[in-house]
Task: inverse folding
């Protein structure tokens, strides 16, 4: 039996239950608004179900196995056996706990949950199609809408994610067996993180990248320790190539890559690039060249909402689109595509709808790459600060001078702090090394509070900890670091 069409109303309609959408819905519920959250797939979105959380779970698990099998210098001799099926089950249990928690939190905050796919009919109405045969659809009228539909992996010609050997990042996080060999297309953060996971599981990994180095957008000194560690894991890099197709062979597939014609020296990262095409044999190929917004499924034009030429919904500092009562948050609202950025935008959108004086400030928005070693950044780099007109002073502290880093066996990398030379205000920071994703938070807080180098340096840090490297980097900028030479 087909359910008849019904019309209901809500103060705030949120489309998409990822980190941006569910946070927006919960915050709006806390502000006593009537909220309806529409989700077509799984609560928690890509991040909790198919991205951030499962990938970090597998990174942790493979790190444990790799470290146990490579700790001879500590006097530990082991040959760990990896049960991939059990590892995947553990990862799925972690995901399940979090996604179940999201649903409970939404309900506890009075959010009405609706499963289905929403499309705009006009600027105050959507039609929600329910999944499943005979489930029908319904019309939902709203006063305000928050679009939080996220992003999806970009496909490239010749590589269909429906073909069994071709993987997107979601499929790569759910393999039932460890592939003997893997070609990774793209050396951005997704490609590099997953290349590391499978290299530690014993897979023969080759990374193809059209540019001349890994992790585009990051400074060379941050990338260098990551590239060095990847070399130690015997990951093979082919820079200056684009994947053009693949074909089946007797015992796997062959990936063809054509010269991109733009490889150049990059701080020692680039490899020699030939003029001829590459033919790479592998069992699987992972395409990880980036993500694109999911905005083409919404019929946004029916509501008058405009997107840019890449499909992103353009918004102001209050998360509003060009239609004043329709907001966009998270990946669909543009770079950077970060879960915490989306959550922040979601909170702001809900507060603006409730009439509060809220706005988004990206000045202290951190970012992290969970490679080995990790990278964490916040604020401005030295070059960005100088381009903005600041006279800068830079402090740097290497982890090889950190007692705690040495005791963990992870001493590659450094903490770098960029400050205004005149007043000493912290403008930005870059960390590459152990727990960089955690350490960067202190410097984000410093920027948010308008702290100076003196504030950071005079804050007593526990010994022995990795966080002492942050203090010493600030002291280095001031010219009185104790455990490294001052500039």
Result:
């Amino acid at each position: 039996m087909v359910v008849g069409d019904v019309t209901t109303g809500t103060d705030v309609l949120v489309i998409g239950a990822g980190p941006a959408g569910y946070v927006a819905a919960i915050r709006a519920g806390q502000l006593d608004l009537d909220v309806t959250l529409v989700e077509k797939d799984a609560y928690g979105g890509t991040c909790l179900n198919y991205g951030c959380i499962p990938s970090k779970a597998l990174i942790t698990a493979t790190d444990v196995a790799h470290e146990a099998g490579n700790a001879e210098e500590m006097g530990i001799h082991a040959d760990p056996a990896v049960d991939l099926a059990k590892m995947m089950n553990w990862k799925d249990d972690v995901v399940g706990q979090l996604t179940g928690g999201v649903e409970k939190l939404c309900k506890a905050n009075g959010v009405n949950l609706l499963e289905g796919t929403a499309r705009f009919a006009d600027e105050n109405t959507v039609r929600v199609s329910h999944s499943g045969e005979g489930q029908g659809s319904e019309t939902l009228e709203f006063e305000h809408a928050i679009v939080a539909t996220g992003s999806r992996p970009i496909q490239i010609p010749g590589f269909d994610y429906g073909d069994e050997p071709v993987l997107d990042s979601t499929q790569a996080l759910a393999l039932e067996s460890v592939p003997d060999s893997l070609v990774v297309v793209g050396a951005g953060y997704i490609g590099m993180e997953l290349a590391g996971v499978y290299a530690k599981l014993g897979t023969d990994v080759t990374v193809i990248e059209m540019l001349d180095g890994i992790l585009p957008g990051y400074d060379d000194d941050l990338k260098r320790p990551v590239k060095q560690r990847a070399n130690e894991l015997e990951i093979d890099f082919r820079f200056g190539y684009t994947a053009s197709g693949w074909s089946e062979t007797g015992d796997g597939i062959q990936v063809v890559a054509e010269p991109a014609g733009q490889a150049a020296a990059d701080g020692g990262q680039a490899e020699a690039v030939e003029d001829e095409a590459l033919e790479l044999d592998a069992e699987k190929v992972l395409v990880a060249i980036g993500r694109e917004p999911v905005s083409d499924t919404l019929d946004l034009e029916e509501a008058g909402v405009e997107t840019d030429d890449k499909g992103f919904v353009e918004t102001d500092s209050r998360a509003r689109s060009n239609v004043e009562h329709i907001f966009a948050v998270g990946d669909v609202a543009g770079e950077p595509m970060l879960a915490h950025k989306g959550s922040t935008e979601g909170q702001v959108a809900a507060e603006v709808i409730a009439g509060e004086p809220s706005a988004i400030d990206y000045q202290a928005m951190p970012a992290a790459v969970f490679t080995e070693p990790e990278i964490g950044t916040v604020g401005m780099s030295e070059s960005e600060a100088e381009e903005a007109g600041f006279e800068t002073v830079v402090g740097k502290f290497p982890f090889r001078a950190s007692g705690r880093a040495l005791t963990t066996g992870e001493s590659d990398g450094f903490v770098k702090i960029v400050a205004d030379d005149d007043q000493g205000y912290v403008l930005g920071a870059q960390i590459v090394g152990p727990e960089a994703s955690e350490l960067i938070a202190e410097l984000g807080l410093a920027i948010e509070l308008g702290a100076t180098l003196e504030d950071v340096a005079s804050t007593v840090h526990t010994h022995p900890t990795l966080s002492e490297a942050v203090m010493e980097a600030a002291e280095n900028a001031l010219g009185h670091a104790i455990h490294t030479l001052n500039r």
